[in-house]
Amino acid sequence: MEKQTLVIGVAGGTGSGKTTLTRALANHFQGKVTVIQHDSYYRAHDDIPFEERVKLNYDSPEAFDNDLMVTQITELIEGKTVECPTYDYARHTRAEATETLSPSRILIVEGILIYAEPRICNLCDIKLFVDTDSDVRILRRIKRDVIDRGRSLESVERQYLETVKPMHELYVEPSKRAADLIIPEGGANLVALDMLIHRVERELA
Containing H/E element for 200? Predict the structure, then answer.
């Protein structure tokens, strides 16, 4: 049977503009897009005290339950509805609630390390990498984690220096080689966005 779902990967460093690009695509192809995020698949750590959870490395491939994500991406491609996990960033563990994701003509897979996991990378028909200056990315991350996720400025700074930056250099930056298209500034790059939209429209046709 011919595959009915176009899978688009959107990778890039923390704060690079992946979500902005994803929203731009979802808005253009309204009603035809399902978005699945790697961040939803952080492993549960309820068995570890909060003080220990804070110290874990959340920026390596091992931090994610990739088995579950691969299974649920495959199920969405097959036309099945899935119960996607959600994550509590303030508590550093998986939340009890799940999010129901229904299959669509376009499935966008978004995450920092999706191309570092070969099984996820291989499921993507179009692989995008959002490339943004590191200074811009860290400022965006500070704003997001402090305002939206309830973190302290000190914890964000410590995490960035201890794990985010070294893991970016070890895993994220090299994964750029898997991309079909590298987009500077993500959704703010209107020329690249216009080209991408036309490519997707051709695929859907």
Answer: helix 190-204
Residue 205 vs residues 105, 198, 199: alpha-carbon distances, Å: 11, 11, 10
Is the distance from CB of 149 to CB of 30 less than 8 angstroms?
no
pTM of the model: 0.88
Q: Which tokens go with 27? A: 């808005």
Instruction: For residues 87 and 129, give the distance between their C-alpha atoms in angstroms, rounded to a whole number.
Output: 24
The token duo for 22 is 């994803």
Task: Give pLDDT tens digits for 19-70.
Answer: 889 999 999 999 999 999 999 999 998 889 988 888 888 888 999 999 999 9
Q: Which CATH number fits domain 6-204: 3.40.30.10, 3.40.50.1820, 3.40.50.11750, 3.40.50.300?
A: 3.40.50.300
CA of residue 49 relative to chain centroid, distance? 27
